[in-house]
Amino acid sequence: MRDDILSSVLSELNGTSADIEASAVISTDGLMIAAVLPQGVDEDRVGAMSAAMLSLGDRTAEELGRGTLEQVLIKGDNGYVLMTHAGEDAVVTVMAKPKAKLGLIFLDVKRATQSITELL
């Protein structure tokens, strides 16, 4: 039941912008909770990498005096990966196209993350 609701929140997030290609909710230990990913994307790999990157981001923000981590943003030739906390025990990861309007995506992800946090 909860997983269905999480999947529908992710589907809605993916539908809010044509620039969002994939999204997932992952436990902080790297296990996939819910995902709306394109064919051929390895869920286990996305889960493990997202948890590791967010953990490293937390530590970096703390060690370098940047305060509490809000998000990790990775930009590559083929687009963006955005990771943010959803409560204490989960990560929301979103993959977006290279020409994505990041301001709108940040807003949409923030809204979705609030809903996901309440569900977890």
Describe how the helices and strands are arranged:
Layout: H1 2-16, E1 20-27, E2 32-36, H2 43-63, E3 72-76, E4 79-85, E5 90-96, H3 102-119
Antiparallel strand pairs: 1-2, 1-5, 3-4, 4-5
Explain this structure to me?
- The chain is α+β, with helices and mostly antiparallel strands and 120 residues long.
- The chain has one domain (2-119): Beta-Lactamase, CATH 3.30.450.30.
- Helices cover 45% and strands 27% of the residues.
- The protein is built from 3 helices and 5 strands.
- It has helices spanning 2-16, 43-63, 102-119; strands spanning 20-27, 32-36, 72-76, 79-85, 90-96.
- The longest helix is centred in the middle third of the chain and has 21 residues, at 43-63.
- The mean pLDDT is 94.
Structural class of the secondary elements? alpha+beta
User: Given the C-alpha coordinates, what overall shape results?
Assistant: globular
Radius of gyration: 13 Å
Assigned CATH superfamily: Dynein light chain 2a, cytoplasmic
Q: In what range is the share of β-strand residues?
A: 25-35%
The CATH topology: Beta-Lactamase
In what order do the strands lie side by side in the largest sheet? 2-1-5-4-3
CATH architecture: 2-Layer Sandwich
Share of helical residues: 40-55%
Largest sheet: 5 strands, antiparallel
Mean pLDDT over all positions: 94
Uncertain runs are none
